[in-house]
């Protein structure tokens, strides 16, 4: 009998559901979830079949706009164990991620699953993080990753704690809290997040509450004892082209003028030119944290300004901490996210005016 590895189809639904019940006592994928992943784009559900019997599966998710893939779940039928099926499914998962030009494949595994951990280590996966109380029964998860494109690794990763924004409009304050936690003895709170937003916001934006001005973020950081400097390729009021109402434009312009005056009074360094890849590398090498405004178009299809924290770099990628998991992601997918340098350059601009701005922070 020959083992076949192939993409899952709708006719596999009953067998997948039954396999899940046999393999796991908790943290099971539902029948509805399997139906979704069979149909979904940006994912690969691979099944192992022998003589018409489904013996295992591997589910790989692709994170849009990045070079990252995640092994979301893998299962081998108890009757099929001891026959290298897990190894075969892992190879199929890597082949799928590689075919989609993903740079890393990441996974989570129970701390007490020694057999699976040995397999991942044998296949070249490196332990890089852990998540306490991750599973339904409160067991911890260990995080592993493997680089699928074997290039020299010279990443300089910064130890940047990840902070999730608590509102749709506080990405900037959440990123600033990441920097404060990385650069000093600081514990982020929701109250501080909202207070930071009050200090740094433009009040209005494309819709709803406004986002944070780079000068506003830098001034708030300076107020809390950090060294800060701003890079911006525009001198005039920012974001005014994102609103139509003249009264709202006037408010944005008033706040911009206030931030400029405060920056001048406090001798805050402001560089009116682009902050490119070389400058990001230099800042990271110096142990500084870089907050960058990006357009979310290549992440979620929406043209919205969004602050992220750069958490590392190497010859091929920049790594970001994204404070917004969105609707389909989990926090694990938003930390040390590898984005190719070319794509990052395309994301690091916003609006018709192609605004490029960054806030560089040090202790």
Automatic annotation (TrEMBL):
CDD domains: NAT_SF (cd04301)
Electron transport among keywords: no
Keywords, comma-separated and alphabetical: Acyltransferase, Transferase
Stated name of the protein: Acetyltransferase
Boundaries of every N-acetyltransferase domain copy: 3-149
MF (Gene Ontology): acyltransferase activity, transferring groups other than amino-acyl groups
InterPro entries registered for this protein in UniProt: Acyl_CoA_acyltransferase, Bact_Acetyltransf, DUF3335, GNAT_dom
Top-rank taxon: Bacteria
Pfam families with a match to the protein in the record: Acetyltransf_1, DUF3335
Entries under Gene3D superfamilies matching the protein: 3.40.630.30, Cysteine proteinases
């Amino acid at each position: 009998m020959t083992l076949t590895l192939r993409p899952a189809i709708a006719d596999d639904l009953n067998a997948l559901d039954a396999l899940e019940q046999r393999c796991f006592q908790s943290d099971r994928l539902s029948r509805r979830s399997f139906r979704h992943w069979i149909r979904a784009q940006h994912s690969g559900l691979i099944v192992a079949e022998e003589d018409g019997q489904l013996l295992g599966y591997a589910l790989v998710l692709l994170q849009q706009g990045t070079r990252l893939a995640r092994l979301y779940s893998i299962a081998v039928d108890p009757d099929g164990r001891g026959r290298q099926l897990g190894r075969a499914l892992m190879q199929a998962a890597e082949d799928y991620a590689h075919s989609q030009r993903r740079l890393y494949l990441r996974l989570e595994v129970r701390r007490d699953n020694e057999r699976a951990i040995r397999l991942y280590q044998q296949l070249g996966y490196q332990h890089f993080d852990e998540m306490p109380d991750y599973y339904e029964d409160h067991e911890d998860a260990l995080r592993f990753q493997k680089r699928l494109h074997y290039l020299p690794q010279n990443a300089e990763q910064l130890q940047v704690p990840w902070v999730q924004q608590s509102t749709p409009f506080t990405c900037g304050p959440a990123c600033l809290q990441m920097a404060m936690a990385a650069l000093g003895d600081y514990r982020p709170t929701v109250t501080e997040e909202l207070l930071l937003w009050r200090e740094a916001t433009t009040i209005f934006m494309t819709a709803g509450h406004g986002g944070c001005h780079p000068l506003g973020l830098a001034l708030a950081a300076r107020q809390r004892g950090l060294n800060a400097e701003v890079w911006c390729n525009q001198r005039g009021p920012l974001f005014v082209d994102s609103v139509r109402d003249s009264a709202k434009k006037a408010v944005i312009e008033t706040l911009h003028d206030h931030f400029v005056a405060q920056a001048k009074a406090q001798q805050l360094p402001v560089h009116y030119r682009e902050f490119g890849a070389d400058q990001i590398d230099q800042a990271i090498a110096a142990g500084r944290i870089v907050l960058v405004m990006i357009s979310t178009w290549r992440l979620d299809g929406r043209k919205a300004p969004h602050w992220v924290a750069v958490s590392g770099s190497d010859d091929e990628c920049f790594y970001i901490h994204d404070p917004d998991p969105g609707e389909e992601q989990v926090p694990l997918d938003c930390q040390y996210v590898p984005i190719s340098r070319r794509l990052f350059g395309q994301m690091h601009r916003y609006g018709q005016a192609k605004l490029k701005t960054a806030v560089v922070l040090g202790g």
